[in-house]
AMP nucleosidase
Amino acid sequence: MSTTKQANISLADEDAVKEVLSEAVLGLWEVVNSLTRLRPSKKDRYRVTIFGSARVQPGTFGYEETKRCAAALAEMGCDIITGGGPGLMQAANEGASSAPERAKSIGIRVDLPFEQEINTFVNQTFEHRTFFTRLHQFVLTSDAFVVAPGGIGTVLETLMVWQLLQVHHLNDTPLILVGDMWPGLVEWARTSMLSADSPLASPEDMNIPQCVDNAEQALAVIEKHRAAWLQNQDDKPNPS
């Protein structure tokens, strides 16, 4: 460890202060990046993140179907993670909370001036000030992603997970897009990115999202992946 004493910097020296702040922020990110490399040797629970619109109202088909899907996942032995807000996020947390299993109903929310408080069906909450750190936590804690219909925020979340799977920062993590709004997005990407003289993506990148028609098909994908996940957990040695 270096013992060289660094000179003090006057707050009146604006350029030097900016340099110190820049170095400090970069140093903090390096610490965060190092810490997020750590992973438990074994995980007790399989966790599914459900993304979807905050605008869908209780009693609608989309709300009730999302609630039913989350309840079935919880009964399967999955914890449910959402953004913790209203709409389909609330539906998923409500479904998880209604299951007889000991599933956790988790909300990872971001501070927005127009966002409602965390929904009442969440039993574990995490708060973030930025979308960037919030999205990072989704990635670190999820074993699969189910995407219900949603708006711009849902599209942002979906494309981020898609890109991380493309560059192998995530591996063997299902990205399941449910409903008739998503095949058009994937087809747009396929047509626009692969038809250029110099393709902008690889053909296999278009196979990363799995588009399904309904919750039953999404549940089947999760059930198969979770079975392989459980087998992998059983094969890992217990930490001493």
